[in-house]
Structure formats: structure tokens, C-alpha cells
Amino acid sequence: MLRINRENLRKSHQAPWLIVDIFMLVLLLINLAWLVFDTLYSTASMQNLLSEYLPAVYHGYKPVHENFLLIDLVFIAIFLTEFCIRWVVSVVNKEHLRWYFFPVLHWYDIVGLIPLGFTRLFRFLRIFSILHRLHKFEIIDLNRTRTYRFFAFYYDVFVEELSDRIVVKILADIQQDVKKGSPLIDKITREVLAPRRPVLTQWVAGVMQHMGSTLSDNDQGSVIREHVKQSVGKAVKNNQQFNNLSYLPVVGKSIEKTLEQTITDIVTASLINLLSDVSDERINEFIQSGVQGYAPKTDALDKEVLQVVDECFDLVKAHVSQQRWKDHLSGKTQTMPMPDVNEHPADPDKR
Questions:
Q1: Which of 115, 171, 220, 289 has its CA 20 to 30 Å from the CA of residue 88?
Q2: What is the pLDDT of residue 221?
């Protein structure tokens, strides 16, 4: 049930307009009821019915029906005056960016002022305009009414179903273009990824510099240094010339271990210097000098990338196609209180 919030009414300074709205609403209902009755009165069956059962009403309303347009012009004059007043107030209060926005946004009021049969039906929309204005200032709360919640729910269902189908259709078209080898992938590479290469190279340089500083740390770089030591030791053992040092009497083993440790330190220091000195400019130079012109056969990789993109589209389409309004509806059904069978036990005397 609609209730007027007096506190919000006082803060919004809409009390005079509320009185005008109530007056216009009553006048509008009278006008619409009169239009319906006059339309029915113009039919022969209604005239025969009134002349037989209510002759006084039939003869008394006949001059009103004959002057229908003149009387309707009185309602139109009142509606037009109220519309012009609201237009002036809207311009004074600067409710819109342009002075002519008000009649554009309230086009149905202008159409309803045209004294034609079908255009008079647009006067009915003024009821919703008045209710919307009161709801906007929180003078009334339409969310508490079942009628509003009913239409709002099915409006959301309609919009969701329509938008989901449009989005799924667009994604399906894009998916088909990608499968057919659309130049979209090449455009993404040239126009999206290529301009951002400086950012990517800067990020790679930062990562490599961080790895270099981590490797130089005694605690954090111990794992990498141990791996380097094992790799150097394995390479030394596989080198025949280096193994010949072990045959030297007395000092052979010592020289071998010393050289192995020295090589490990040199390799580790080289890695630290290489990673620490890396910059985005050097990465760009490396890409231009070493990578440019390299065109391996990447058919398998391209197929895998396209397969990943295709599966991503399928997941997005499945997510979009979910009818969330059904979940909302089933959730409301589950939260409805179940009747208690023990609340009204049967009277044993009435058995």
C-alpha cells in the first residue's frame, strides 16, 4: 500500500506540487472515465440500452455528447496550462541542460493534448509520470507495492533474455570469425600488442633485474647458485681435458676443485651482471637484431591459441546464457514460509 512520507515531502518542498498532482490525477481519471463512457455512448447498442432502462440518462447526456469536443477542450486547456507552468518552473530551476528538453522528455503530454481518438489515450501516461515523480523524491515508495514488483520483475526478465541473446549472438559471430582465420588476430597483434611492446619490454627488464639482485643475495640466491654449481660440476666431469688434471700427482685433485669453484663463481657473477645490466633498451635491441626475421613454423601453437580463445568464448557464452531470473524466482519460492500442520490441530470432538 502506498504511503506518503511526510518527512521527505517536507524536505523536497514538493507539497504544493503534490496538491497539484492529486488535483490533476483526479481530473485525469474523470476525463478518462468520461472518454470511455462517451465512446460507449456513441454505439447504438449502448444508446438502445440507456433509452430502455435509463431514459433520463440517455436524454440528459445527449447534449453533452453533441458538444463533446468543446467540453474536451476545457480539459485540454487545463492540462496545457499545467504543462506550461511546469515547463517554466523547469527552466527556472535549470532541471535540464536545455530549455527545450522538457517538452521532448514529456512528449506524451503534448501528444495527449491533441483532440483525436487514439491520442487521448496518451493522457493515461500522465498517471505514471506523476507516480514516478513522487517516487523520485521518495515521497512514496513504489517498491512496496506488489504491482510495481510484479511488472519490474518481468521487465527485468524481458531485458535479461533479450540482452543475453544479443550478446550470445555477437560472441558466436566473433567465434566463427576466429575459427575461419579472421584478420582480427593479426589486427590485435599489430594494433594492440605492438604499440604496447615498450611497456612489455620494460616489465621484462624489471623482472630480470630483480632476478639479478636476488641471485647476488647470499640467502635468496643460494638455490640458483647451487644449481649453477651442479651444472658446472656436471660439465667439468664430462670434459675429458679437465679430467686429465686428476692424474697429476699430489696437486691434481686440488687443482680440479679449485678450477671448478672458480668456474662456478665466474658463471654466477656473469649471470648476476647480465641480469642486473638488462634494460628495456637492450631488450629492444635484442629483439630487433636477434629475433627479427625469425619465422618458425607455429601452426601447432596457433591452433592451440585459437583453441584456448574458442573455449574461452564457450565459457563466456555459457555464463551469459544463465537465466539468473530463474534462480531469483526459485530463491523466492524456497524462502516462502511453509504452513505449520501442527498450528491448527484437528478437534478430536469433531471426528
A1: 115
A2: 65
